Amino acid sequence: MNQTGTGPAHKLHEENRTARMLLEILNKEQAQLVAADVDALTALTEEKNQLVARMSELAAERHAALTAAGFEATEQGMQAWLDSLQPPTARQSWKELLEIAQAAKEINRSNGMLIGKHLARNQNALNVLKGGPQGQTLYGPNGQSAVTPAGRGLVIG
User: Fold this and answer.
1) Residue 80 neighbours by CB distance under 10 Å
2) What does the pLDDT read at residue 157?
3) CB distance 48 to 25 below 8 Å
4) 1 contacts 68 by C-beta, under 8 angstroms
5) pLDDT the model gives residue 118
6) What percent of the chain has pLDDT over 90?
7) Is the pLDDT of residue 145 over 70?
8) Which end of the chain has fewer CB within 10 Å, C or N?
């Protein structure tokens, strides 16, 4: 089995490093979501997208190497390949990568929930500005108040 060069473990160290960087970005993203700092989120999103793209490239390379080594291009295939190694040199790196991926998945899930809360809050604010669910608007197209007084008019005289 090929353990160096183009083998499945060849770029495992880089996958781990990239996954750690992604986890760090997800943690920063979560902090910015809590702080509602849209400008910081925009910058983090670009960096996150680049890291996700790199992780996809590295996983595709690992899958190709697994297939070339005669194993299935899956997590189970990677485990079978690792089990075939003597000595088990790459097992710890793979274990770390799986742990990082699980942590990133959980943080990403939490971030999605935070985004959902922000969206709901913004939708509620828009509903208030539009006058609530009845479809009434507080402001007309000219920016002036469009609210008409409710109740009876005052009759004098």
Assistant:
1) 15
2) 54
3) yes
4) no
5) 87
6) 54
7) no
8) C
